[in-house]
Design brief:
The protein is of the alpha/beta class and 168 residues long. It is 49% helix and 23% strand. It is built from five helices and five strands. Strand 2 and strand 3 form a beta hairpin. The longest helix is centred in the last third of the chain and has 22 residues.
C-alpha cells in the first residue's frame, strides 16, 4: 500500500436495487470516491436484470480500479424465492468482480453493524450516521442500499487493518 492508498468497492446486492460504494483509504483516512444504486427494470426477465448488475459493476471496476471488493452475505429470508433472487444478484456482482481479478470478501449484516456502530442490532439510521461521520459527509440523502454498500466497504477496511495489526 503506497501513497495512493487502497480502493475498495462495497456492494449491497439486490435484484431490484443494488447499492455500491467506492472508497479510498490513504494513511488511515477514508475518502468517498463514488456511491449510488443500480436500479434494474423489474419488467424485464431476471436474466436481463442480472446482466445489468454484472455490467454496471464491471463498469465501476473499470472506472475506479478497486484493489478489493466487499459484499454483503445473503441472509436467509423467510421467503425462499426472495433468498434465491438475492443470491442470484450477489452472484452476478461477484462474477463481475472475479472476472476483473478482484478478491471478494463477504460480510454478514450484523458484522457490518457491529464493526461500525458497536452493536449488531443497530438500525439503518445509526449505520448511515456512522458512514457519514467516517467519510466526512453530511445529509447525503442516499438510499439505504448505498449507505449499506459504503458501510460494507468501511467494514472491510477496518477488518483489513485489524488483520494487519494482529499479524494475520
Amino acid at each position: 500500500m503506497g501513497d495512493s492508498g487502497i480502493v475498495i468497492i462495497g456492494i449491497d446486492p439486490g435484484t431490484r436495487v443494488t447499492g455500491y460504494g467506492i472508497v479510498r483509504e490513504v494513511s488511515g483516512q477514508v475518502v468517498l470516491m463514488d456511491a449510488g444504486t443500480i436500479r434494474t427494470n423489474t419488467k424485464k426477465p431476471m436474466c436481463a436484470r442480472l446482466g445489468q448488475i454484472y455490467s454496471r459493476i464491471s463498469g465501476l471496476i473499470s472506472e475506479y480500479s478497486p484493489d478489493e471488493a466487499a459484499i454483503e452475505n445473503a441472509f436467509v429470508a423467510s421467503n425462499p424465492a426472495s433468498a434465491l433472487k438475492l443470491g442470484q444478484a450477489r452472484g452476478a456482482a461477484m462474477a463481475a468482480c472475479a472476472v476483473s481479478g478482484l478478491v471478494v470478501s463477504g460480510y454478514e449484516p450484523t458484522k457490518v453493524k457491529q464493526n461500525l456502530v458497536g452493536t449488531g442490532r443497530a438500525d439503518k439510521s445509526q449505520v448511515a450516521f456512522m458512514v457519514e461521520r467516517i467519510l466526512g459527509v453530511k445529509n447525503t440523502g442516499w438510499a439505504n442500499d448505498t449507505t449499506d454498500a459504503l458501510a460494507i466497504a468501511v467494514c472491510h477496511l477496518n477488518e483489513r487493518r485489524f488483520a494487519r495489526m494482529a499479524g494475520k
